[in-house]
């Protein structure tokens, strides 16, 4: 959807099918998983292309193409979240970077087998991000490949999720996202809409 020439479809109709209903929840979930609850945010949600080609002429787009959020987590850490279906050059594009006083982590899911790690305590002459490649010593990897650095694929992660789900049923234990996790993401989405509509910082309540 990065060009105005992409024909109208169900993806361009209805709030649930816009960026805040489709892609942004994944980014929000990553943020909540790593950083904890968001206390407040300021959001700008936009429709980049107001119309798209239809069989009988231009069709009005009734949902959003991109969203920018700055936020404050309850632990006092600031953050920024950006989601777009109109950003040219991106395919999968789920990525994060977390910086702290002792180091930093960076991951891009288009290269899902590489984690970039920075350690503040490294000596200056070797200081910088270093690449950690997934291998048999990392969870689930050995079930797919015995050789380090060969890599798993997206569909492998779906199989991992399925295994976790079946294991949870078999053992009667919680394994993975809960209803409460989904509700927490939904609260952030709704707060972002309120913030964008009012052009104000908004609390997550």
Compile the SSE list and pairings.
Blueprint: H1 19-22, H2 24-35, E1 38-46, E2 51-54, E3 57-60, E4 66-73, E5 78-84, E6 95-99, E7 103-108, E8 114-119, E9 130-133, H3 154-171, H4 179-198, E10 202-203
Q: Roughly how many Å apart are the termini?
A: 32 Å
Fraction in helix: 25-40%
Number of E-state strands: 10
Number of helix segments? Answer: 4
Spans where pLDDT lies below 50 across 5 or more residues: none
- Structural category is alpha+beta
Order of helices and strands: HHEEEEEEEEEHHE
Average pLDDT level: 95
How would you characterize the largest beta sheet?
4 strands, antiparallel
Shape estimate: globular
How much of the sequence is in beta strands? 25-35%
What value does the Rg take, in angstroms? 20 Å
